[in-house]
Amino acid sequence: MRRIANPLYRRKAVPWVRIPPPPPFFKREEMERLRWLMFPNLNDRFPYKLYIEEYPSNFLCLNVQERWPGPNKQIYCLREGHFDENQLPTSEPVESCSIVSKKQYGKKLEIILDRKIKKRCWFLFLEKEYKTKPGEFYEQIFWITQSSAKIRRKGAYIPKGGKEMVFKVIQDIRERYPYRFGKAVIKKENLPVGDYGLVKNGEVIAVAERKTLDNFIHEISTYDVFKASLQELRQFKYKAVVFESPYADFINPKKNNFYKPTYIAEILADLFVSFPDIQFVFCDNRKFANEWIYRWFKRINITFTDV
Fold first, then answer.
1. 3-class DSSP assignment, residue 29
2. All domains of the chain in start order, with CATH
3. Structural Rg of the chain based on CA atoms
4. Chunked mean pLDDT (size 10), the chain, 307 residues
5. 8 A C-beta contact, residue 113 and residue 36
6. Closest by CA position to 46, among listed 35, 62, 59, 69
7. Euclidean distance between the first and final Cα of the chain, in Å?
8. What one-character-per-residue DSSP string does 79-128 give?
């Protein structure tokens, strides 16, 4: 965290040009072309074959027991494999639909279809160890829908990384009072932007910048410079600015003697709109800010491990 000794200190502002957030892996037009296809299957146990287009002309095929899981049911599926466009069945599909959204969260694949009903579902890809064959594993796939999840009320599915999971964090060398990250491996380096970075496979994939209330007030005196640093923050996949004070303190005149509360509120709103791809998090104090960044880094690390 960088500090400016005098809040009235002025530096020459650098030119600032708004850079749009990076495009997703698929453009919207490409995503709309992704398909959900269901074909009949000559198998009494798995009477249907479901083809999910993962990217253009490449399909994941699952043998399924029903066309759609009913209430209070989850369907067991069997992986058939991956197929390209030319390997699709020549018969007419019994069901065909476009995919609006397809996202992978660790072992969970979430899909939203382009239709009014029976449109939200997800697949859990689990790995189980054979009881009689230690060290050998088999795959279990379950198809769950929104209606069945509401009835069963099983709560949130969150992959766990284990209590002993260790991840690597880079701490900026200018941090005077560093945060703690459990059993994480800490390395001090000169980060180009931010105060802490999460390292995965030798690459920084997440960066967090922490701010106290006083520090943020100082940043306003060189607002264009601060925004330019946030532009640099956008190069990373995950990025966050974490405040060590609640939002109410920022617009409390008793805790801010330099600017009007309405002006601070406008500055914050400008940041939220100008940088929609950056998480701005308000915590009650330094301890909770430390905890938030620690959990954030840990969850990102688990997600990248499970993919």
1. helix
2. 28-152 (no CATH), 168-306 (3.40.50.10130)
3. 25
4. 45 40 46 84 94 93 92 87 93 94 87 91 91 89 77 54 73 91 91 93 93 92 90 94 95 88 94 95 95 93 71
5. yes
6. 62
7. 32
8. EEEEEEGGGS-SSPPSEEEEEEEEEEETTEEEEEESSSSS-EEEEEEEEE
